[in-house]
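Standup notes
- DV: blocked on the single-chain target, sequence here:
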Amino acid sequence: SSDEDVVLKEEFRGAVIKQGCLLKQGHRRKNWKVRKFILRDDPAYMHYYDPTKGEDEPLGAIHLRGSVVTAVEYVPDAKKYDVDGNLFEIITSDETHYFLQAATSEERKEWIQAIQIVSKTGK
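- DV (later): unblocked, structure below
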């Protein structure tokens, strides 16, 4: 319906604050996949995409308002997949946990700072 289109557009209205590829842990199968992330400020969303497929259809969205983001040293099951270091976690206001890995510690710091700002200021 056209109502859904309006809702979708709303999510994409914010200015792009940061974008790039991160490793993301799957919710059901705990495997890690490279996803392209686009962070927008108002409303505060991080959409993620399959980097091989372009940016038409996000695979998912993380609503960041009121979320908590922290650097973490340990993610259960990560070592099994040779994923180690530069990890961070987003816990959304509805208690969904997302585990992500940046390529470098610098990049992790940048993502965390950007997400923190957006989570406080965005809708």
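- Follow-up: Residues 105-121 form the longest helix (17 residues).
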